[in-house]
Amino acid sequence: SVKRSKERSLEEAAQLLRQIPEAQLRGLEEEHLLLLVRLLLSLQLEMVSISTACRKVDQVSSTDSFFTTFNYFSIILACMYLEDSVVGREVWRESFMPMLQRVSESLPAVLQEESQRDGLICYITAKVCLQAFQLLPNEVAPLVWEENHSKEAVQRILQALIDILRQVSFLSKDTRLLAGTAVAMLINTASESTAAGAAAWNLLQASHPQPCQLTVGVLQVTCDPVGKDRVDRLAVSRGLLTCCRPHILLSPSHDTTQACLLLEGLFPLVYALCEEKQDCHYFAFEVLTMWLKRVKECVTDLWRMTGSRLLPDDSKLLQQLTHIIWTNAESPVEGVPEFASSAFTLLLNLYALDSEQFCDTSKTFYFTLLERLLKLPWEAKAKYHRLCALLPHVGAELVLDQYTEVSRHLLNCLSTNHLSPCGSEFYKCLIQQQRRELPVSLTEVDLAGRWANSWQPLLLEALTSEVTLLQTNSSTHLLPCTLQVFPSAVHHLLASLNPQKPGHLHAWACVLSSYRAVSGCSPWALHGSSTFKTLQLALGSADDKVRLAALNLLCCSPKTRDVPSAEEITILKEFIPQNLNCESSPFRQHLQAAVRRFLVRIRDGCLAHIRGKRCSLYHIGFVEWLGELPYSFLSPGHSYQRKKTALLLLFAVLETCTDTWSPDKKKGQPPANIGLLIDCARQRGQWDFFCRTKQLLLISCLEDSTNEIRELSAGLLLRFFPPSFPADIAEVLETRSMQLLRSPRVQEAQMGALMMKMLLQKNLCVVRVLLKELEEHHLTAKADMMLSARTKPIHGVLCALQRCLLEAADDIYTTLDHSLMTKLLDLLENISLLLLAVLHGDCEAHAPPSFCDMGNAISSLISQSGGGQTDEEECVLLSEEHSLVLTCCWVSLKETGILLGSLVEKVLKESKKHSECLLTKRDLMRASDVFKNILLKCRHWGAVEGCGLGFTKFCTSLLNSSDSDLKDIPAQMLKDGLQVVQCPGSTSVTRRAAGLPMLILCVLSSEEISKARPLLALSMQTLLDTARRPLDENWDQTLDLPQVCAVHTLQALVRGAGLGAAVLQFAPAVAVLSLTLLRSPCWAMRNAALQLYSSLCSRMLGQRSSSVEAGPTQHSMSPAAFFFHYPTLQAVLLCELRGAAQHLHRPTAGAKLHLQPSLYPILTLLAHLQPGVQDSPETLLDFLPPLLQLSASPIYSVRVMASKALVAMTPPSGYFDLLLKLTSQLPGPQESCNHNRLHGQLLQMKALLDRALCSDSVLSDDLREVVNRIHSSMWLGTTAQCCPLVRAAYLSVAGSLRRYSCETFLLQLSDRLMHDLHAPQQACCCRSCSLYEQDEANVFAEPSVMSAHMLPYLLQMAEKSSQSSALAQTLTAWAEKNAAQVLDNLTDCEQLLPAETLSPSWLALLVDPRFHCALRGLFARAVFLLHLLKTSACTQHHCDPLSMQMRLQTVCTLLTQNGVHFTPALTATVSAEEARL
User: Fold this and answer.
1) Which of 171, 667, 746, 1470 could form a disulfide with 167 if both were Cys (CB 3.0 to 4.6 A apart)?
2) Spatial separation of the C-alpha atoms in residues 1392 and 1459, rounded to whole Å
């Protein structure tokens, strides 16, 4: 490997250097000595990522004389040597004061430079301070804690670090957090706890926003607050917890001897940080976890100091910790739920230590938590994490006794994507805890029996389920851990499975696969010879899942040297050809992975045999067969599925069984001695993987119609085949690629670009050729746009440049120079302006044209060129000329943006290795103008979206630069974009504001995550202010309104994956805005607001459940968690609901329909929340009265959504209270009623019952009363109730209560319903019909495959012709009719055969599917005819069998050598016919 090679070279260098006497080294001239030092420094930089190599360089450079001559370290080198080099540390120690002086001068200077203070230099300088304090404490301590005259340097450093801490808008969070750690590490250098504790308390006080003096030992600095963002408090608490030794954390405050820093100082600060809603919530919970760890570390000292329990059951500390952990378990901030889970585990462990220390065995806290957890709904992800943590403290037996629904909940979790990992982990923890609690005297068989009693029904139900997700997750997660904990459970599972039953065959294969993976034992011996029969039955199943499970069982083994048996190889050779044409992409990927593992077993096993001087010819032959098989299905004419599978299998063969090294891979490299196996195979004439024929076949795939086939083929050629093409192939490829680049078809142009990339990587310089070609395309477009769109459409060359410069070139500085870069930028700028001018036509230059304007501009261009339609009647469809011009424009603009952005990214990234950059600030300004023009002046979404990809890379590169001038470029573009948003509209309505939101989103997505993101704050505030502006009195619906554009831009920011959770801090304001704008008189505003609201809800609510039971609208955030994170929304939403409910009860409400636009969106949001959370705040109960009142809404959808929202907002303990209240209001047959209200109440009953009765509930008194009331209202389900909606809703409620209803009621209801059904009713008899006939199956015709499949049967038929005179006559007639044509076709093939070198005409034939189909059909007919000539004397007068055999063999051989590959069946048949002669 590269790593091993570097280490070996360094070892050799070290040995050579040790042979040189030190006196001789010291005698070197300064010039030579400095050269050696420079070499060692560069080696250290290069090896910094390889720890072993870095230590070897350290050993090489351990001679002090090298460093005595090198008297200056850069900041980065100083940091690296302090961290990784023992020698560097000694140099620092010997020259400590000069080095400290240099750092004390550098850090304030860095803070003064705007271009450096928010970049890497400032971070590295702060890191150097931290390292010096940490690694050289003996040198630092006297300067801090003793009066001296040398404290100025360290005092300047401390002041600079405090200044970094207090900065808000300029520095990244990472730098400020590091500064806090450095200050804490400085305090930690104290040897005396009193002084250190005083300094720590002082630092804690200094983290508050008021100005103050910070005293650390003899040092004193000023703390002036610059802003308020609380990162300084976070950095201080994080630093103290990370660095300080226990005696400092336990030190009391100066004004009391009782309080200690850890409990009374740090915890209130940490608790406040976790309570606050801010963008650094992740770091706050990281600090909480650290605090718990340090408390656990210091708990013995805390007990000694306080003399009492740390966490008694009624303590405020325990309540606060439980509250903050519990309420953030469902936080939408990424990483916070994981930290909350870790903190919960730490809290439980700490409580256990506390209880054990004070002999408290009551465990009240644990039982309270268990009761609280069991009340959580099964959809709560945090439920299972907390149960896993609680399990060791309360025992599995108690949990299973109280958690009666555990099996059903686990099945639900395994049927839900985001819950399956936590559910599986809970099951694993349960069975592990059960095993620990079982008697040690039990045998493995007895232990497995105990497991089977509890869990076997659950596992079998999951494994045999028809739900794919449940089946997959149980086999992937539950089976392996089951067999790891209870190995003998495999016998119980297999005994319960019957391969003839549905679902059992898949379960059988999964059980055996897991058994093989866990135990490493062969599965074939478990059931004797029947195992292979069952395996073949599974491999022949029509179900993809069953076949894959069986294939995994066949191919995979934990032992890579487990050589496959002859039976396994035979079965696999039968399986692979039958599964090449599978439509499922996952099936193809799993097939490749399984075959790769099978090949690894063959390779490693054969290598072990070779070491023993033995080599398995059978296994080598299988690899030869598999390496030849894919080429039979790569020629044009085969289906995409067959080609894709063939290429994947070929990739597996070449990756496993060749000596090709992949420097970008850390694992999966070929063994060092793979050459022995390759030589062994080639000595027997096998494993010739890289011959010319195979190379030509893969080259023909470069013109496949699908991108996946082209890319896979190119990847195989580049990675495995020789680094250069033969001269004739390279020449033909270059000609062909230039032809394709000039094609107006995007797909063909992409083929040409891919070929150009191949040529560049095969050592042909094509960049200059491509630049010249691009210039010609540009000149042609300027002169005649129609001609350019047909013959030189620009986008092909742009795509080729992108591939050659960005994908193929390792170092772009070796490919481009300043002149070429300038030329390329000029061309891109001019091309974009030209194409935009084409789309603009006669429009104003500053106004982006509408789609109508673009169409008119293109039509005008076509008419000026003399093309287009001549008749006066307007055609609805676009003409060919129109499509050509439009495609040329938008695809070229898209490729321009992608190329330009990727080019800037690569140039700036690689500029760090070179002395100068290929791009100046002026160049980058020009590039920004290109992006701005495309995004703001083109409304074609394809061009906007493609350009956005490049623009994001462009902005990221500039914003991450250390040059402040470069950072200003995207910032200024953002301000310009925001200015455009605020301007009055242009001339047309633009759907979703076209490219303007994309421009703003790209800039903001590129902003560095670790900083305060001032650009995001500026943009959100500007957009919110613009959207809130009232419409002008004379607003025009036909114009682009700034307010609408701002709302669409907000929607883009909310939906943008690049911003993620960063926009959540603005969520309440955006939600209120969108709800307010739903009342706008402007339709465009209402439409934009609804889209914004929908996107925002998806972002706020987090992950959606995908299980069948949860329904399509279920999210994983409970109402309590939602309003905890967005508290300001609670009052807003409740006010809107109350207003809508109150309007329903006004006297005039029934006379006029009143629409409240925000009502349904609010109900939808509430309905999406996770129901079933018991411990909801009392304030959430305020939502119930208006939701109950909304049952009377005259709008059907409002009533439906109100019933769903009612369930989500009601705690489980209140379900039956509401049911009793609702059922008490059911009217009698003679009572008048509001049908809307009655229908709404029945819907609410149905929703509550479905939630309350989701388990096997017992018939409680409340439930019995509800059932009786429903029974007594049977008339609601009959024709006595005239409203069909009410009848349907009542029957739905009765259906939910069916298992609790008496037979008398069910019979009476059935009789009434049957009577009503047979009663005469006026109805229309409608016949169901379809306007459309059913489509035929979309089967891809593969004549070549059909020929190969049919030929063996035709030959068998010829063999039996002697048994039937009619058959013999038919075959003779066929031979007489077709012999002459077959012979003529063979003659044509002989004339078609190419010369010794590849020609363009032959390459054209190789990529033509018609040629391959005709060729395979001809050979099938020729072989069939030859067989007839040999078996029937009456047909031999047509031609000589021997002559035909020789011609057929010659043509077949020559075609095979020139890129035509026949199927193994056809080749074997030709060889067999030759043997018959």
Assistant:
1) 171
2) 13
* C-alpha–C-alpha distance, residues 519 and 502, integer Å: 27
Q: Where are the beta strands (DSSP E) in 224-322?
A: none
Q: What is the dihedral of CA 78, 84, 85, 90, to 10 degrees?
A: 70
Which residue carries 């906007």 as its tokens? 944
Sign of the torsion formed by the C-alpha atoms of 131, 134, 139 and 143 = positive
Residues 6+ apart with CB under 8 A from 1267: 1259, 1297, 1300, 1301
- DSSP secondary structure code for residue 158 in this structure: H
Two structure tokens written together for 12 = 């050799």
Confidence band for 1325, pLDDT divided at 50, 70 and 90 = very low
Residues shown for the chain: 1477
pLDDT in the model for residue 68: 34
Cα–Cα dist 421/404, whole Å: 21
Question: What whole-number distance in Å separates Cα of residue 1096 and Cα of residue 1116?
Answer: 16
Domain spans in the chain, listed from the N-terminal domain onward: 252-362, 559-689, 767-863+881-908+920-959, 1114-1313, 1343-1476
- Asked whether residue 1256 carries a pLDDT value surpassing 60, the answer given is no
Q: CA distances (Å), 735 to each of 162, 376, 626, 739, 778, in order?
A: 66, 69, 34, 6, 21
Q: What angle do CA 994, 1000, 1001 make, to 5 degrees?
A: 90
Crossing angle of helices 818-840/880-910, nearest 10°? Answer: 150
Name which of 676, 725, 678, 679 is nearest 699 in CA terms. 725
pLDDT at 65: 37
pLDDT at 42: 62
CB 1208 within 8 A of CB 1167: yes
**Strands 219-223, 212-216: pairing kind:** antiparallel
Task: Say how far apart CA 658 and CA 603 lie, in whole Å.
Answer: 10
Q: Which two tokens stand for residue 94?
A: 């010997």
State how far Cα 594 lies from the chain centre: 23
Residues 6+ apart with CB under 8 A from 1221: 1188
List pLDDT tens digits, range 1432-1472.
755 556 677 888 888 888 888 888 888 888 777 677 776 66
DSSP 849-916: PPHHHHHHHHHHHHHHTT-S--SSSPPSSPPHHHHHHHHHHHHHHHHHHHHHHHHHHHHHHHGGGSSS
Say if pTM beats, i.e. exceeds, 0.70.
Answer: yes
Number of H-type helices and E-type strands within the chain: 71, 2
And the tokens for 1309?
């209801």
- Name beta bridge partners: 1115: 1104
Phi, psi of 855 (to 5 degrees): -65, -40
Residues 1108 and 1126: their CA atoms lie apart, in Å, by 29
- The residue assigned the tokens 């600095």 is 221
Give the torsion through C-alpha atoms of 432, 436, 441, 442, to 10 deg. Answer: -30
Q: Which residues of 864-882 are buried (b: 16+ CB within 10 A; e: fewer)?
A: eeebbeeeeeeeeeeeebb
Residue 933 C-beta-side C-alpha neighbours within 13 Å: 22
**Residue 363: pLDDT band with limits 50, 70, 90:** confident
Max Cα-Cα span within the chain:
121
Least confident among 363-372, 846-855, 1037-1046, 1194-1203: 846-855
The Cα 234–Cα 213 span in angstroms is 19
The pLDDT score that the predictor gives to residue 414 is 93
Residue in this structure with the two tokens 């929908």, named with its chain if needed: 1094
Per the structure block, which two tokens stand in for 1116?
């994983």
Q: 544, 561, 550: which is closest to 524 by C-alpha?
A: 550
% of the chain exceeding 90 in pLDDT: 41
